[in-house]
Amino acid sequence: MGETICTTCPYCGVGCGIKASLEGERSVRITGDPAHPANMGRLCSKGTHLAETVGLEGRLLQPMIGDEAVGWDTALDDVAARMRDTIKRYGPDAVAFYVSGQLLTEDYYVANKLLKGFVGTANIDTNSRLCMASAVAAHQRAFGEDIVPCSYADLDEADLILLVGSNTAWCHPVIWQRIEKARDENGTKLVVIDPRRTETAELADLHIPVTPDGDVALFNALLAAMAERGALDDAFLEQHCDVPSGFFDALEAGSHGIAPDVFARLAELIAGSPRMVTLFSQGANQSVCGTDKGNAIINLHLATGRINRPGAGPFSMTGQPNAMGGREVGGLASTLACHLGFSEAERAAVSEFWQAPGLCESPGLKAVDLFRAVHSGDIKFVWIMATNPAVSMPDAAFVRDALVKCPNVVVSDMIADTDTAKLAHVRLPAMGWGEKDGTVTNSERVISRQRAIFPPAGEARADWRIICDVARRLGHDEAFAFSGSADIFREYAAMTQLSADHGKLLDLTAWAECSDAAYAEMAPFQWGGRHPCAAGFPTPDGKAALVPVREPQPASRSSRYPLTLNTGRYRDQWHTMTRTGLSAKLSSHRREPKLEVSPADAAANGLTHGGFASVISAHGTSCYRVQVNEGQTDGQLFVPMHFTDANSGAGRTGKLIHPQTDPHSGQPGFKNVPVTIEAVQPEWRAFLLTRERAVPQVLYWASSRIETGWLTELAGFDTISLDELLPQGPRSEVNDMVRGMQRIAVFNDAGEPAALLYLTRTGVLPDRDWIVRQFANPQASIGELLAGRPATPTPDTGPTVCVCHDVGEATIVAAIDEGAEDVDAIGRVTCAGTNCGSCRPILSRLLEHQQSRLKEAAE
Ligand SMILES: Nc1nc2c(c(=O)[nH]1)N[C@H]1C(S)=C(S)[C@@H](COP(=O)(O)OP(=O)(O)OC[C@H]3O[C@@H](n4cnc5c(=O)[nH]c(N)nc54)[C@H](O)[C@@H]3O)O[C@H]1N2
Ligand SMILES: Nc1nc2c(c(=O)[nH]1)N[C@H]1C(S)=C(S)[C@@H](COP(=O)(O)OP(=O)(O)OC[C@H]3O[C@@H](n4cnc5c(=O)[nH]c(N)nc54)[C@H](O)[C@@H]3O)O[C@H]1N2
Ligand code: SF4
Ligand SMILES: [Mo]
Fold first, then answer.
1. Of 209, 433, 605, 743, which one has the fewest beta carbons inside 10 Å?
2. Which of 126, 163, 194, 297 for a ligand 1 pocket mutation test, highest count of atoms within 8 Å of Cβ?
3. Per DSSP, what are the bridge partners of residue 241?
């Protein structure tokens, strides 16, 4: 076994430390790093299965201009020429970068320096606009700086944790594990505020099914209730807060949809829990009133003095691994580097530090407006790095259109054929996780190193290097003559002196002169300490502001779109699935884009569980598999954001989303979109197993990774063209005309199955799990395969629950029947839940169901 390298997970903002041991050319063993403060050895399913995603499959290995592979010099000359030309003919504002919280701090720093400092436009925005911008704006309004005022350790000491708009068990699973531990050990209470009954909500002490965007009304009402009960901290308000006159009188009651007795319980819990942490994420941020939601949460903490001390604080969780680092180096169009703004003094300081007389003068276009300007032709050059906006932006069809019209589209990505890369004139191969080297900052301001484990794939290069090579071609040699990522980090660290000069707290100056060796060995460290605002808030008078916020006016709704569409994430997939979609284990949790709908809405619209439905908004139509779900409130639907044209026929959700944004932050409202639904009744349904990914031209399809190929679910109206769908080769076939059933096996030269198709018009399709396992077995019996089941039935272990140890539901239920009395006991008997822990919520649910069934049976 090779050397063990300490690095950081490339997925969520928890920022877990990983120990990676090289085991072969591109094969690696991953474990959690017990010494990392973010996870202390824990990992979730996505981190655990990283090894399955580091192969060369799908990678962009060479620079491409159109469909032609070219050398780096040609590609870089071409990008620089396009940029130079655009600036010369149309001015700097015709150029834009759209970057990502998945870049490393060093990449982000040079991208921002090039555009804002040397091209002279602030038209650089990031996908963090879709993710964190409202939290940023709320922090700036309340604290005077974009700063998270607490730390993970506060979770360990809290009496009460509120989760607002966060499916933590799925999206920040290691924070979830920390919360579970606090509940077990200290009896910490947990409240989930989410319109949807998520897996996280099911496990809470109290679920508050707030109306969509009812959070401002709810938090205002809670604050009024605290005032009524005398639970405010008058001394803290007096010493540390600016309170606008009449603030508490203006807390009018609004509509949050919570029954009075449930509201009273919540208010009681809060009043009795001086140590309270409120964790919030996209249910708060991704809203047309996201900034106000952030401030409503912060107001409650300030007014009750629940901040700047152990076990307390309003805590915005970051989504991407380096969303926080990007904010620090000024990746948003609305900030300059080092938490500075656009005042005369701040601009002058940045301009002097960079020796950049041409520094941009005012904030640039925020993501939604930026793509509008691409569409209108005001922007004529756009360089997209580490993000897939053709899928993830609101009104994604419009964004796609904008990119089709734009004369210069450059994409830096690891993957060759993302929906966005397909629209690029120039594609630049970027090094990915395991290849690149640099730093990231997590949710609690801990900076950690990502370190290279493998050599770059093909000709891939580091993002910072690609940007600097273009900058030098534009004539900015001196400003971009960095020798490596350590060199960039030193310059950035030195620049944070400007933060202190302008009364801010971000301070990395201790690293300004660090040696390459010290950078190489950097251990994770937190800037600002556990409670960075404890000695005073970074405002001129040291006080935080209570910001008056009002419930938003209900938008006028067209009767054509009576339902509300909510969108979000699945446990084991990451965004547009370019990496997690390569893992068979991760793909087994959810294989298709599902429309979650309440039983009443399903019945009213003729939708059946397992059938299909279109979701229609004013911007587009997409098609999903129907999942009738008791946890959905009537009138509200939920679909995942993950599916793309590369892995589905019509499951792309971004094109349904309206481009409405929060007036303060510019963040889009992804979670509350007016839509309608229609049942879709295909004439046939099928599933197909292939070795290569199939891209059929049918009404509905979704493909997902299995150990030995791909599983594609299909449905359609027209007769299906088998020759287009199936590979060449000898076939075995069974048909049952009465039920419209057709089953086909296609063989390769070695006589092994190369493809299997199961199609039906009226009947039931066989169990996928068993067939998927047989597809990996060269000795599989063709008779059994076409029958869709074994000749002698083997015990069915049911759908996989624990993806790490491959344990099925039936095995777990059997363990419970035999007396396993808690989740740990199930683990001891079956191994389920003993590795990454992501399935522990399902285990507790199975336990609860099965135990109550056993009890009923006994009575
Ligand atoms: N598995 C997985 N984990 C991830 C990611 C991933 O792609 N997959 N992505 C990472 C990233 S970048 C991010 S930003 C985070 C996101 O992490 P989360 O914010 O936890 O994830 P989401 O599923 O987007 O949305 C959270 C919840 O907000 C709820 N919600 C919707 N509307 C409202 C509302 O009006 N009020 C309230 N209170 N709640 C509402 C939704 O029902 C949903 O359950 O996850 C990170 N972690
Ligand atoms: N409907 C809906 N839409 C949403 C959301 C939602 O909740 N609902 N959430 C929004 C949020 S919070 C977010 S954060 C966005 C995420 O949306 P995106 O950022 O568009 O999604 P990803 O799939 O993470 O895209 C990252 C891309 O970068 C590539 N990549 C990975 N590492 C590197 C690298 O080191 N260098 C380079 N150059 N490329 C790399 C990957 O292959 C991938 O193509 O989606 C937003 N869109
Ligand atoms: S919680 Fe999971 S996805 Fe997030 S950083 Fe940790 S291992 Fe990675
Ligand atoms: Mo995000």
1. 605
2. 194
3. 544
Say which DSSP state 60 is in. Answer: -
Residue 1 has what pLDDT?
A: 56
- SS3 readout for 641-689: CCCCCCCECCCCCHHHCCCCECCCCCCECCCCEEEEEEEECCCEEEEEE
CB-ligand 3 contact for 174 (6 Å cutoff): yes
Q: What is the CA radius of gyration of the chain?
A: 27
pLDDT on residue 794: 66
Q: Give, rounded to a whole angstrom, the gap between the first and last alpha carbons of the chain.
A: 56
Residue type, 420: T
pTM above 0.70, yes or no: yes
**Which atom belonging to ligand 2 lies closest to the Cα atom of 654?**
1
pLDDT given at position 829: 86
| pLDDT (0 to 100) of residue 262 | 97
Residue minimizing CA distance to atom 6 of ligand 2: 568
Query: CA 596, CA 173: separation in Å to the nearest integer?
Result: 22
Nearest CA to 147 among 530, 501, 499, 532? 532
**Which helix or strand (DSSP H or E) is residue 47 part of?**
helix 45-48
Query: Cα separation of 335 and 361, whole Å?
Result: 11
DSSP 240-303: HEE--TTTTTT---------HHHHHHHHHHHHT-SSEEEEE-HHHHSSTTHHHHHHHHHHHHHH
Q: Is 12 in the pocket of ligand 3 (CB under 6 A)?
A: yes
Q: Decide whether any atom of ligand 3 lies within 6 Å of the 32 Cβ.
A: no
Looking at the chain, the number of H-run helices and the number of E-run strands are 30, 34
For residues 618-639, one letter each, b for 16 or more C-beta atoms within 10 angstroms of the residue's C-beta and e for the rest, the string is ebbebbbbbbbbebbbeebbbb
pLDDT of residue 719: 81
Amino acid at 361: E
- The CA 743 to ligand 2 mean position distance, Å, reads 38
Instruction: Return the closest-CA partner of residue 607 out of 630, 628, 623.
Output: 628
Which of 42, 46, 433 has most ligand 3 atoms within 8 Å of its beta carbon, as the pocket-test mutant?
46
Residue that is written with structure tokens 């499916």 in the block: 167
Residue 259 Cα, ligand 3 centroid: separation in angstroms? 36
pLDDT tens, residue by residue, 450-503: 999 999 999 999 999 999 999 999 999 999 999 999 999 999 999 999 999 999
Pocket of ligand 3 contains residue 10 by CB under 6 Å: no
- Vertex 750: Cα angle to 744 and 752 (nearest 5): 35
164 lines ligand 1 (CB under 6 A): yes
CB atoms within 10 A of CB 48: 24
What is the model's pLDDT at position 588?
93
pLDDT at residue number 307: 98
Q: What is the mean pLDDT of each run of 10 residues along the chain (859 residues)?
A: 89 98 93 98 97 95 98 98 98 98 98 98 98 98 98 98 98 97 97 97 97 97 96 98 94 88 97 98 98 98 98 98 97 96 97 98 98 98 98 98 98 97 98 97 98 97 98 98 98 98 97 98 98 97 97 83 97 96 95 98 97 97 96 96 95 97 98 98 96 91 96 91 89 87 92 93 89 89 88 75 86 89 89 87 88 82
Q: Is 96 in the pocket of ligand 3 (CB under 6 A)?
A: no
C-alpha 364/C-alpha 334 separation (Å) is: 6
CA dist 651 to 246, 697, 701, Å?
49, 14, 8
Distance 128 CA to ligand 2 centre (A): 9
346 touches 338 (CB < 8 A): no
DSSP-derived secondary structure letter, 634: T
CB of 47 within 6 A of ligand 3: the answer is yes
Does the Cβ of 319 fall within 6 Å of ligand 3?
Answer: no
Residue 500's contacts (CB-CB under 8 Å, 6 or more residues apart) are 507, 509
Quick one: which ligand is closest to 11's CA?
3
- The beta-strand segments (E) located in 33-107 are 64-65, 68-69, 95-99
